[in-house]
Design goal:
mainly alpha, 4 helices, elongated
Length: 114
């Protein structure tokens, strides 16, 4: 059974990754972002963290983070398919954030998968 500690840690780390992602995506002043897009980024990464926290998949911590990070980035990546570079960057960053979320949750705070 997954612990509440793991779910909270992964979700909070996901939201923190979402803040980082949001600021990285809005760093180009020539392309201002709407509040809706900012919130979409923030909550997408938060939901990825929640997915990692509740997942019962029996995988090594690093592959668990990578796989769920990839899955969690799909809803954000497909709406920007018209720009291949942004699509790939969104997908790759989802994989990286998934890895980081799992690293913080499982290794740093030792909240193992249940």
């Amino acid at each position: 059974m997954t612990s509440t500690k793991r779910i909270l840690l992964a979700t909070i780390t996901g939201f923190l990754c979402g803040i980082i992602c949001m600021y990285m995506a809005s760093s180009d002043p020539s392309q201002p972002m709407t509040l809706g897009l900012k919130l979409s980024i923030l909550f997408s990464r938060g939901i990825t963290g929640f997915m990692i926290g509740i997942s019962a998949l029996k995988l090594k911590w690093w592959s668990h983070g990578i796989i769920l990070g990839a899955i969690g980035s799909i809803p954000m990546a497909f709406p920007v398919m018209d720009d291949v570079n942004i699509f790939i960057a969104t997908f790759v960053m989802g994989i990286i954030y998934g890895f980081v979320i799992e690293l913080v949750t499982s290794i740093l705070f030792k909240a193992k998968q249940g």
